[in-house]
Prior knowledge:
Layout: H1 2-27, H2 57-76, E1 82-96, H3 97-100, E2 102-114, E3 121-132, E4 139-145, H4 150-153, H5 173-182, H6 191-196, E5 200-204, H7 214-224, H8 237-252, E6 258-268, H9 270-281, E7 287-291, H10 309-315, H11 322-325, H12 338-343, E8 350-355, H13 363-379, E9 399-404, H14 414-426
Parallel strand pairs: 4-5, 4-6, 6-7, 7-8, 8-9
Antiparallel strand pairs: 1-2, 2-3, 3-5
The structure holds alpha-D-glucopyranuronic acid (GCU).
Amino acid sequence: MMQDAKRIRFSLIILCFFLVTGCVRLTMSWADLTPDRPEATPEVLAAFDDQGRVLTTADWQERVPALRQAFQEHVYGILPDESGARIVDRRLVADDLLEGRARLEELTVEVSARFGEVPERAATFKLLLATPNAVKGSSPLILMETFCPNHNTIPHEGVSRPDTGGGCDGEGPMAMAVTYVFGRYIATPPLAEIFDRGYALATFYPSEFVPDQAGAGLSALRRFSDGHSDDETRWGAVAAWGWGFSRALDVLAQEPTVDMARVIAYGHSRYGKAALFAAAFDERIAGVIAHQSGTGGAALSRDKAGESVGEITDAYPHWFARQYAAYAGQEEKLPVDQHQLLALIAPRPMLLGNARRDVWSDPEGTFVAAQGAHPVYDLLGTSGLQQTDLKAFIPDATLSFHIRPGTHGVTEDDWPAFFDFLEAHFRE
Ligand code: GCU
């Protein structure tokens, strides 16, 4: 009896939660669909540092290292002088995942970083690799990082569970609420369709090596970068998670089932920031899907709606170099802005996912950034951004922008767009 009363009370609380968030979802402001904001600055091909205007592809090749250096010094922090990755253990979890669709292996990866003269520091994380059984030979690979531990991304009882938990478990009201608010695919992507379309999927939980918490995250970052004396430019979690994509690639490059010419980095929100960073710094990444990546991702830092540099660096002091926080309220002093990060990914295909009511992640600022990056796609001889307004999704453009109704999260409306983009660029 007592138990029943408790259950009813709990269900009522959950119902109220759904009603309140439902109302919030309806009343949140809308992303303006006509960008009338000023263009992204500095102009992407303009003179920069001591370099003149970019006129040729050779000039752009010279610009790339200068921009990467500036993004490290002013936004994300400095990457290690030397990095390593190796598989220290591997285990077959299942060869018949999802009614025989895929083979699932769990690799234990040891990653190491050396900064300056201090000996390298290492950590391990688990990388799940699922390859479609129907494909003979190698498959294109979606490489993702997610908010939830691996056993949530690819649910199977044989997948290891990290000690750190992650709060994504269960079928209960909490899991239902998370899915209701953030969409059906927030934790688990549409696995069956991914494999049926012939894609392999590799995933890891970056909190295993740099926890997504201010205290634990900062101490993991400091431990790794002991040899880096300058606190202002010490790397933040977004750079380290982006670096994690590259270390995963180091080991995946040895897998015969993976087509290294067709690796697509995928991330949502904070991991969309990391996926963009990874693609900008690692040319082995053949394409990127950055969904609702917002500030420090695809949205401009200057002249922006939504989350400001001050807000993001206050709330998440472990995400960026401390230097980025110094530009709060004086973003115009930043020597680079995010359209230049997108330009570093050119000419590789990139999809920027957005939602109309997700104003916090600034879809309009993301569109203006894509427009700002376009001249580099053009210079390098690919289509770049073909759409002139936010709604005209063109998946086969190399710089593609998608916006759907609704709020922040990964929903049934997102993956069809992701698949259209993937099929347009990565189907052989
Ligand atoms: C917060 C944060 C965003 C981030 C998002 C997420 O809203 O302010 O910058 O993108 O979390 O990762 O879901």
